[in-house]
Structures are given as structure tokens and as C-alpha cells.
Design a protein that fits this description.
Number of strands: 7
Strand content: 15-25%
CATH topology: Rossmann fold
Distance between the termini: 38 Å
Number of domains: 1
Radius of gyration: 16 Å
Number of helices: 7
CATH architecture: 3-Layer(aba) Sandwich
Structural class: alpha/beta
Helix content: 25-40%
Length: 196
């Protein structure tokens, strides 16, 4: 599988531990090395800023998608040339899902979780078919992994739904995980809901 473009969900917090910045910069270097374009939320700080800084300084392709009200408070990364400003957060989420070969979720807060869960729900319903990779830096997503498994074990989700996402531990594993992700059933809506 030729990977041309990857959407990256990540934090805008600048106060988080440095280990998350290190992993983000390594991922950006991997994208650069394989000539993969990054699409992200457009922020100038936090993991968004770190991703963009490396992509821009390395001459890579990166696109920001951001609601206009965020631009108005100067959250937009000033060095990202390819920018799309949209009306609201819902349109931003929709645009982040378009024309991408995969989604990658880095550690983040409620915004990252919201984007990730919406993508997972759309994939469960057969409306999104691409790989979803979760980068579990230093066990950040261990509780999420346990919760999703509990959903499967207690039959809130089908066992096949475990193939909606792939969890990796290191940023160097992201691109191989995209290439090796299981093909998603285009008729996924047929097993979206469990019946007794």
C-alpha cells in the first residue's frame, strides 16, 4: 500500500511531558522520510506545533484544517502554507477524514478523543474504511485499550470491531501498521449492532 497522506489527531497542550513531544517529532521524521503528507488541526503549539515544526523545517507537505474562530485568536501555525479554514468544529472533523489514507491518534485530551471516537464509530458503520492507528506512547492509551476490550467482552461491540483500530507503542511502528492493517469490510453496518 502506497501511503500518500495521513491525518494526525493530537494535543494542542504545551504543558504535557516531553516524552510526547519526542514521539511526535519521531513520527514527523518518519512521515518526511517516506514522503507522506500530514493533515492536522493546524495548531501552532503542543503536539500539533511539534508535528508542523518538523514537517515544515524538513520541507515536507502538511495541511492545517481549522475553524475560523481559532484563527482569530492566533492559534494557527504561522509557517504552514496549506491551510483550510472552516466554519466550525464539525466541518473540521469531516474535512480531516476526507482524502486520507489513514488516521493516527497521538496522545491528547477531549478533542483528540472526540475525533478518534467519531472515526471509530464511522468505521463501525461502514462509512470510513481506512486504518486507524493509535500511538500508545508510554502506555497513555492503556486505559482506553482496556475499556474497548471491555466493550467487546460484554457485547457492546462485536469481536470483529477490534479490527477497527491498531494500537502501536512506538512512532516508528505507525507506517508499518498502516500498511499491514486488516482490510475493513465495506458491509460493516451488517454487524454494527449485536443481536441476541
Amino acid at each position: 500500500m502506497k501511503i500518500k497522506r495521513v491525518t494526525v489527531y493530537c494535543s494542542s497542550s504545551a504543558a504535557i511531558p516531553d516524552k510526547y513531544f519526542i514521539a511526535t517529532r519521531i513520527l514527523a521524521q518518519e512521515l518526511l522520510a517516506h514522503n507522506v503528507e500530514a493533515v492536522f488541526g493546524g495548531g501552532a503549539v503542543g503536539l500539533m506545533g511539534a508535528l508542523a515544526d518538523v514537517m515544515v523545517s524538513g520541507g515536507g507537505k502538511i495541511k492545517g484544517i481549522m475553524p475560523t474562530f481559532m484563527k482569530d485568536v492566533e492559534w494557527a501555525h504561522p509557517d504552514v502554507v496549506d491551510f483550510e479554514f472552516v466554519t466550525d468544529m464539525s466541518e473540521r472533523k469531516n474535512r480531516l477524514l476526507l482524502d486520507t489514507d489513514a488516521l493516527v491518534a497521538l496522545p491528547g485530551g477531549t478533542g483528540t478523543y472526540e475525533e478518534l471516537f467519531e472515526a471509530m464509530s464511522l468505521k463501525r458503520l461502514g462509512k470510513f474504511h481506512h486504518p486507524i492507528i493509535v500511538l500508545n506512547t508510554d502506555g497513555f492509551y492503556d486505559p482506553l485499550q482496556a475499556q474497548l476490550q471491555k466493550c467487546i467482552d460484554e457485547k457492546f461491540m462485536h469481536p470483529r470491531h477490534a479490527d477497527i483500530w491498531t494500537i502501536v507503542q512506538e512512532p516508528t511502528e505507525v507506517l508499518p501498521a498502516i500498511r499491514n492493517a486488516a482490510l475493513w469490510d465495506e458491509n460493516a453496518i451488517s454487524f454494527a449492532t449485536l443481536r441476541t
